[in-house]
Write a structure and sequence with these properties.
Layout (H helix, E strand, L loop, with lengths): L1 H32 L5 H24 L1 H9 L5 H27 L6 H24 L27 H16 L3 H7 L1 H20 L3 H7 L10
Helix pairs in contact: 1-2, 1-3, 1-4, 2-3, 2-5, 4-7, 4-8, 5-6, 6-7
Length: 228
């Protein structure tokens, strides 16, 4: 019947997206490194795709509509399209630089920092998963959805955009897990792009989401607790 067909279509699309992401990420890291003996890359892949797999399974079982929405939606506003495109370019460049860094030995990150960065990466994904649990209206695109309500509990009682805080942690941790200071330097502008995205999203929410302006008066910080 129709439900089974839609479920199978979603399952296939999810598996294809997961495997393609795994393949592309591997190519971006191992080809510049010139070897599969890039153990930091294997560590990063494990830390990246294990949570993605777990979250995908949970969403497929408990909230397939959100999973479908996150797979299919694309930005419509020009400014947000540019932010997403530049972020993707910087992320790709960071992976490639990390691979060459491993091959050519440009930098050395102490093991203690790699371990700390690995923990931060897991914390980032944990926060991301919690945001998905708390906010049924969460989308990959900047938009105000029908019947959307202001969420002001949990992480949303601390910052207005906890997902972007989680992504900031990931941006800072990933290059260090890959043992590359140069990749971190390439990745840092992504945080500025998140600030741009946040400001654009806030403007839309002030205009289109009832109660959001009052919410901003109760929760002062946009993305980073006690800072901004």
């Amino acid at each position: 019947n129709l439900f089974i067909k839609q479920t199978m279509k979603l399952l296939i699309k999810t598996l294809v997206a997961f495997l393609m992401g795994l393949l592309i990420t591997g190519c971006m890291l191992f080809l510049p490194a010139g070897t599969l003996e890039y153990y930091n890359a294997w560590l990063f892949i494990a830390l990246l795709f294990t949570p993605i797999l777990v979250m995908g399974i949970v969403l497929f079982i408990k909230n397939p509509e959100m999973l479908r929405k996150r797979l299919e939606m694309k930005e419509r506003e020009k400014e947000q399209k540019n932010v997403v495109a530049f972020s993707g370019l910087l992320l790709t460049a960071s992976f490639i630089v990390a691979g060459f860094d491993h091959r050519l030995g440009w930098s050395h990150v102490p093991n203690a920092i790699i371990i700390a960065a690995s923990i931060i990466q897991l914390i980032g994904y944990g926060l991301y998963a919690e945001v998905l649990r708390e906010n049924a209206f969460l989308s990959r695109v900047v938009e105000v959805q029908e019947n959307q309500q202001v969420i002001d509990t949990g992480l949303y009682s601390i910052v207005r955009h906890p997902m972007y805080f989680a992504v900031t942690l990931l941006y800072l941790a990933i290059p260090l897990v890959l043992s590359s200071w140069w990749a971190l330097l390439v990745m840092l502008p992504c945080i500025f792009l998140l600030v741009v995205r946040t400001k654009n999203e806030e403007k839309m929410l002030h205009q289109g989401l009832p109660g959001y302006t009052d919410y901003t008066k109760r929760v002062r910080y946009r993305m980073i607790p006690f800072i901004w």
